[in-house]
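In response to reviewer comment 3 from the previous cycle, which asked for concrete evidence that the modeling workflow produces usable outputs, we include below a single protein chain processed end to end. The sequence was submitted unchanged, and the resulting structure tokens are shown without manual editing.
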Amino acid sequence: MSDTVLLDCLRLGIQSGRAVRTARRAARREPPGPKQRAAHRRLRAAGRRVRHDDEAWRRAWQALHGTRFHGPAATASTTFLARLGADPQALIRRADAVLVHTSAGKDSVVALHRTVMAAKAAGCLDKVVVVHADLGPGTEWPGVRELAQRQAERYGLRFVVVAAAGGFLGMVEARGMWPDAARRLWCVNCTNRFRSWSDTLSTCKERCAARPPPPADRGAGQCAPDRVRHQDRVHTRVRRPGR
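The workflow returned the following structure tokens.
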């Protein structure tokens, strides 16, 4: 059992838990009748799914750590990511690329600086790529994109800009209302980001393939790319050993 498998199981557990809460709210809003019965059917289906996903991530946790985690998937995910982040240099060495999503604000600057310092210590600064998601005209503050680019250039890093079709306001207009805490608008935006990131990661993978093989103490078989891992603003392309 690998840490990547556990993270995938935790992600599904968190998503299915949110789906249950959304289905429960929808069932409460519907008046008695066919729509309410349909909403309750969706709620029951979501409940079956969350029980399945909950058992899956708990089994994965036990297989990896030898003990069963007592608590929700969100708490388990936070705990596990904190453990992975305790050794950022080892995490970066296992990666094909490290994408730092920046808004050019102070939080992004700190995240970028700390990532660069860890990458330098690991001897993998060329893996770091700075990504800025442009919110579109009428939403993005003037000069933000240029500031993010200057910050990336300050460390000598590659800078990539991605944007969803229509921008943030276009997604609001298509939905007919503003986002709230329960219903976010990032689905389309993330889809476009990951399309661009896939191109970025492919380039990084080619660059990594040209490097000399890793030292023996870094483990055998760590060469094939796996998937994107999210940790706050830092996105790491992880390689699964043995593939």
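Confidence is low (pLDDT under 50) at residues 187-196, 211-243. We consider this sufficient to address the reviewer's concern, and the full set will be provided in the supplementary archive.
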